[in-house]
Design brief:
alpha+beta; two-stranded antiparallel sheet; elongated
Length: 74
């Protein structure tokens, strides 16, 4: 499950991201592998995604800026 929430803070807005990773099945070995590999990978991916969103949002707030699909931020 993944949830995004926008919270207005003064003159700005804060994006809050929450996710829950539920490992498949009751097998302890599968759960341990899932926690060891998937959790860190998810954090790396999420951080990069949120930085890209921040970069594009701050770019849009400037005069004459426009978001362009396919432009990589990071």
């Amino acid at each position: 499950m993944w949830i995004f929430h926008l919270r207005v803070r003064g003159a700005g807005t804060r994006l809050i991201s929450r996710n829950r990773i539920i490992p498949p099945g009751p097998n302890r070995m599968v759960r341990a592998l899932y926690d060891t590999v998937m959790a860190p990978g998810s954090l790396i991916m999420e951080r990069r995604m949120l930085r890209g969103i921040k970069h594009r949002a701050e770019g849009l707030s400037g005069a004459g800026s426009a978001w362009r699909p396919g432009v990589r931020c990071g």
